[in-house]
Amino acid sequence: MRMNGATVSIDSVSRRFTSGEARVTAVDDVSLVIEAGSVVALSGPSGSGKSTLLHLIGAIDRADAGTITVDDVDVTTLSRKQSAAYRSRIGFVFQRYHLIPTLSVLDNVLAPVLPHKVDFDAPARAAELLAAVGLEDRGRALPSQLSGGQQQRVAIARALLSRPRLLLADEPTGNLDSKTGKEILDLLAALQAQHPMTIVIATHEQHVAERCDRLVRMRDGQVVADLTVTPGSPGLLADAAELRS
Ligand SMILES: Nc1ncnc2c1ncn2[C@@H]1O[C@H](COP(=O)(O)OP(=O)(O)OP(=O)(O)O)[C@@H](O)[C@H]1O
Ligand SMILES: [Mg+2]
Known about the structure:
Elements: E1 8-19, E2 22-34, E3 39-43, H1 50-57, E4 65-70, E5 73-74, H2 80-89, E6 91-93, H3 105-110, H4 122-132, H5 148-160, E7 166-170, H6 178-194, E8 198-202, H7 206-209, E9 214-219, E10 222-228, H8 234-244
Parallel strand pairs: 3-8, 3-9, 6-7, 7-8
Antiparallel strand pairs: 1-2, 1-4, 4-5, 9-10
Helix pairs in contact: 4-5, 5-6
The structure holds adenosine-5'-triphosphate (ATP) and magnesium ion.
């Protein structure tokens, strides 16, 4: 097994939705190769197709055309059962945390494995992850007793339980103040240093995009810019300013 994360190859992928009379091409003929171990920001205005593309990569939704392969798995042709197995091996952080309100923090981290009888030491791993996200003493709390940033940390710990080689994060800092958002990014960087993985982050925020290796900008379902981010490069700020417009 390769140690540096999954390679994601997206080839001519489209996803169309019909709502009432309206037809929307949420993802419109997108092709991208995301290198193993890279951290990629998906940016673009609201409705540009970022979440839809993440859902397609994560096999939460299915493309109407094109193929997506994650390492050697073609995620666009999986059966329902195969999709579930694939999803259990990747990490997905949702925009609104999606924690289960009636379960403790620790059980939320364990939620992906609770329905299955697994033989690895999931509770110890969950406790370790809670410590890694700085919440070792909150395992018995309910999600409603935590702040937004803390809930997002729980969601990240949950996403990492299966030691995924691919982490998909949809606006992981979108509901947080900028200081907490920065802490979440520091946390992701630290976790990636411990356990190499490919990370794709959908984000509106320029400061998030600037922390990534690569910035893919979407508009109307299409990729309209694709930049390699060089830390501290004078060109980046100009590029980022242009991307904001
Ligand atoms: N399940 C759905 N049914 C109908 N239309 C949908 C569905 N999901 C997404 N869309 C449409 O597809 C387009 C892309 O939506 P998407 O959620 O991917 O955008 P986004 O870039 O993630 O936006 P935001 O930044 O607001 O999260 C939008 O026009 C949206 O209305
Ligand atoms: Mg979205």
